[in-house]
Description:
single chain; about 700 residues; alpha+beta; 9-stranded mixed β-sheet; 16 helices; about 25% helix; about 20% strand; globular
Amino acid sequence: xxxxxxxxxxxxxxxxxxxxxxxxxxxxxxxxxxxxxxxxxxxxxxxxxxxxxxxxxxxxxxxxxxxxxxxxxxxxxxxxxxxxxxxxxxxxxxxxxxxxxxxxxxxxxxxxxxxxxxxxxxxxxxxxxxxxxxxxxxxxxxxxxxxxxxxxxxxxxxxxxxxxxxxxxxxxxxxxxxxxxxxxxxxxxxxxxxxxxxxxxxxxxxxxxxxxxxxxxxxxxxxxxxxxxxxxxxxxxxxxxxxxxxxxxxxxxxxxxxxxxxxxxxxxxxxxxxxxxxxxxxxxxxxxxxxxxxxxxxxxxxxxxxxxxxxxxxxxxxxxxxxxxxxxxxxxxxxxxxxxxxxxxxxxxxxxxxxxxxxxxxxxxxxxxxxxxxxxxxxxxxxxxxxxxxxxxxxxxxxxxxxxxxxxxxxxxxxxxxxxxxxxxxxxxxxxxxxxxxxxxxxxxxxxxxxxxxxxxxxxxxxxxxxxxxxxxxxxxxxxxxxxxxxxxxxxxxxxxxxxxxxxxxxxxxxxxxxxxxxxxxxxxxxxxxxxxxxxxxxxxxxxxxxxxxxxxxxxxxxxxxxxxxxxxxxxxxxxxxxxxxxxxxxxxxxxxxxxxxxxxxxxxxxxxxxxxxxxxxxxxxxxxxxxxxxxxxxxxxxxxxxxxxxxxxxxxxxxxxxxxxxxxxxxxxxxxxxxxxxxxxxxxxxxxxxxxxxxxxx
Length: 699
């Protein structure tokens, strides 16, 4: 035990001195540092966000990341922004991360107040679930309920480490704000509104369509003609085409450029869209099309850049989804990447090196906290959160089995009560309403964080919600009335479902049914941001200090018995351009021992790449491979398969190729040479790796 003392002391000294020796920041500019850490969960965890329509992950396609940015102004004010490839970020996680990093940053001369830490989710539904701080999202946000303390702690460690390393990398930098609109017009429709009829019920729907900057169709047929097979049939004949036009195409990129070299350090991309192109039942972790674009940006910069996606008012907006396979994810990723690159080429505004940040923590169980007034904006929260009947049925194109049994749009109560309007409870037991109210209060969060952050003339309003296009538009109009460039930052420092306008709420579709605190909730949060912007007195911001259990009910044993081939059950996502399953992709197979204590770090060490027999690298990208288990482990022995997707994306020359695999232990294995033949009619066989020890053998 005593032998550990020098190691611990060295670690503590290094954590302080390494930070203290980072680049000097007493300049006339910002100081910025950026870093990322992998947060891909091990196999056996449910994917989070699709609820009962999701799946259990048997492996991964690409990786999930936490990307951290530390920014300091000339007065010493520090803010940290983190983007996580997850469906949500519980407030309790933010609290634990702050506890981890605050002292280390302070020893290095960086004072990070609780309100200065913003951890946001990209809202990929192909990250792990079951690490949330409320029962509703642990029990109903995934296909299998439960809470994993081990996963929660893994996320805290990885995010904390990314922040500390970002602080070590800080250099004097300028912040450049770029703005552009991407994929405008009907020739290249990139986004759709998944609730066009609901959007149309807003009294200001026409104004929103006009000011979002897109043009109206020149004929009644123009909108329906854009409908593609695989998309919903309804909503294309509505006047002025809200299906394609009720989206915010504005993209903002906040780029940090190092003063000494002029090279970009980081790209923070702000845009409003559900990154849910891959079909909901895919049994793989990945970061969807926005993650593809961020990975590509970093790869083009030879990993000298950290690029992150931050989501906006995406409550009713998705990318267009026809086939929902890997080819479509890559196609949307390339479109999104082109949009980012176009935005970065626009003339930037150089931001004044001045940071302002303020925040409020709303206690939904306090009557004093549930009402907000700011000028003519009056908003209030219902006493108890309530889920409407349409919520269990799922959103458009992501319906659950409950949809066919009546949990769908338009199911309403005949009586408006409990400040919840005509919302009909998802589970309605009339004689037990007090009990259901009590249960709702226990299921959902009682502390909601609201943050206003200003970097020069650029401001962010962070909410723990998925905000509709119209609700976001109204907030932005208020906030930009003072001359700032405002961006709503959703899914940040907590998660409390959706935020619909009162008119959208009345429709009681999936979004309205998921707006938990009643029809005036959107006005309440608009009011809160305006009050923070106006600089009125706010109570001290304190993150909640809640203990989290240490249970870990998930493991790869859930995967079950061996599949015949590694691509079994992937027929919906591995398809060619004709939408037919592709069954002849090359795959490798290897086994390795992964002790339970190492399973959370294993994914970050495991790599696959392809070369020719002469050693020329053909494909070393994460998006080029699916890494998957075909069966449950035997003890700590795991049999892995690597499926090479490269021949699916483009035709490959008729030469011999070699698989290379780096295992979780760091061993490098190579296969015998092989050729690609997607037209073969024989059963595929694995490309075995030479000289690998088998952990399948009995010992």
